[in-house]
Amino acid sequence: MPNISESLKNAAAILTGGEIAEAVREAKSLLAFALNVNQTFLIAHSEYELSIEEEKRFRDFVSRRARREPFQYIVGKQEFCGLDFAVTKDVLIPRPETAMLVETAIEILEDDARFCEVGIGSGCISVSILHVVKTATAIGLDISERALDVARENSETHRVAERLELKISNIFENLPAEKFDLIVSNPPYIPAGDVETLQAEVRDYEPLDALTDGGDGLSIVKKIIADAPEFLKPDGFLLMEIGFNQANQVKEMFDENLWRVVEILPDLQRIPRTVRAQIGG
User: Fold this and answer.
1) Does 255 map to a domain?
2) 44, 67, 90: which is the final residue of a domain?
């Protein structure tokens, strides 16, 4: 059987053929995962021979990655806001820019606050907020039962499950009459016509209904903005991630008679990314 050094060389060649940009780094990460060791072990024991089972498992991981399946789905996790989150093909992979929603929510929320997340997915946003704001409680909505299962697992892992209620709902459809201090959402905002331009990892593997509304990318955003006032306390906030070049259109969706402040905050690449709106008192 091949040793670690040989296995890494072969895997890097396969990944390079699959147009994986950092083939050597990803080969090391996949082998460490396959062997359940850290990468220091790979360096210190380069002559270690893989067992038949280890070799088979590693080859499978490399084959999947070469077909552009995201690394995160293969290993089943992704780090976000300093926490590890379980991810499956039923949920979007948490992205660094989405941390702006978490950071802004933490700034807004006061003691004993209650918030609602529309489209909770993996739970990375709500769980990260609850992990920091220890007195807050939340309800997370999603149209996918399997996504809610992932969110439930992550809430249990990070010990916030008792403060997070999960509910099947198409936007606010099944949400009982209640007023929140904050509504937060990372909705499907990619226009359907742009889906084909996405990286293969995103286009071919991440859940399509969490990426796009099937239209111009703004229908669900518009629905959230229109219905949010019904569920917000006076002076409550709406936080939402939006896509590239959507800022002006989104701003126009807010009724000036209802909303006191509407800001769109740029991300680290200066792309308008996070809507921060406050309802009138």
Assistant:
1) yes
2) 67
